[in-house]
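debug: dumping io for the single-chain case to check the tokenizer round-trip. Nothing else runs in this session.
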Amino acid sequence: MKWLEDFPFFIILMGLSCIAMYIPMMHAIRLEDWLTARTFFYNGTFLSVVTTIVGIAARRQAKGASASTHLLTMLGAYAILPIFLAMPMAHLVNSITFFQAYFEMLSSLTTTGATLFDDPKSISEPLHLWRSLVGWLGGFMILVVAMAIFAPLNMGGFEIYALQRHRKVAVSQMQKAEVAERLNRFSMQIFPVYLLLTVILSLVLVVLGERILVAVSHAMAILSTSGISPVGGLSEAQGGFPAELIMFLFLFFAISRNTFLSGREQESWKVIKQDKEITQALLCITIIPLLLFIRHWSGAIELNEQVDGLSSLASFWGSTFTVLSFLTTTGFVSQSWEVSQSWSGLNTPGLIFIGLASLGGGVATTAGGIKLLRVYALYKHGLREMERLSFPSSVGGAGQRGRSIRREGAFVAWIFLMVFVLSLGIVMLALTLTGISFIDALAFAVAGLSTTGPLVHIAIEGGGSYAQLPDMAKGILCVAMILGRLETVAVIALFNPNYWR
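debug: decoded output
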């Protein structure tokens, strides 16, 4: 695969998109849906020819491209690729415009999972497979980009562990290193594991009673944290509790990069035991479901309902799975979630899930949001500041690495948090100008910036719908999804004057 390094990164992404179109084509042939099969074949073949011609003309021009240049390429890819990905859907679904098809594909590519089709039966199975496949490839792309581009630039959460004394060295190495080689190397390392995990989860779901299409789509949605489902979520799935338990375990791959690919600092899997992101995630899926359980249990007592053990366990499990799902920005809701609602007659405040989606998962994973590592750096800094209030002359421990996290790491984490909040405020203001209420604008803005599309269905009372939004609001959400996937700080870095010199 060494020859791929001669082509620009965007051309490679175009080529993968063309190849991917033949997968729903084969599924359509199996269903004898000849119109859908021809549409994907014609679009895939046409774009393959165009990509080949442009690739031959641009070959070897990618040599010497810096990580900053590839960062600009990623911004262009998220803005332009959905145009080509939307062509089959725009032709096959007459009820939507091309811009709406673009919104659907951008949502899938950024692993947001926001869909305009409230009724899953309104589109065919090959189109559902196409949405899931685009989301799965988008998750793989961000994994590779995080390790090959964000890591050398000390972005995407890697800046927390970037020691001050190593920053000049890191910048010098980044300028000298060949980004194309890193992209090729990490692609070869990540893709086999990513594919194998998806296949294993798909087979397990099929064994547990899921249809093949649903099993494959849900497996791709879990690994990519896109939350895309051909049946509208887990409520219509057939696997039941065993399937949810297996998916719950696979969601941990979006909590920390150490569960998927060992970090740069340590090569041993023993680091998972001491991983701070996993520790924070375990605290969240223990404390928050427990508080929700106590709330619903007290509500059931007030209603004089009989509290039986089976309903109690189902309620706690539904809360635990749903909390982890939104923490990883996947957005799947457990089948047992409705048990706790009907058990106590109380609704869960949507602000809890807005906060979970904003926190996000781990660094260098498919999850969006602020990221747990940044939250940990701010937490350690806060503890140290409170300690200094009591002992002003004390010296913090944990070595140079720990002091760096509490100082420089907390500083850059605070900057990212403020930029995230500022972006959230701007997107909310823009959405309210289109006629959306303040509360709904908050849910839609967080869903876009945290790449958690299904958030609006549980955070908005009565359920939100992307299909009912005006096109101007959809355009604003498109910008929010790109900012959330690339992270606002990385996009702002492109406007740094030093980048253009």
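debug: round-trip ok. DSSP finds 22 helices and no strands in the chain.
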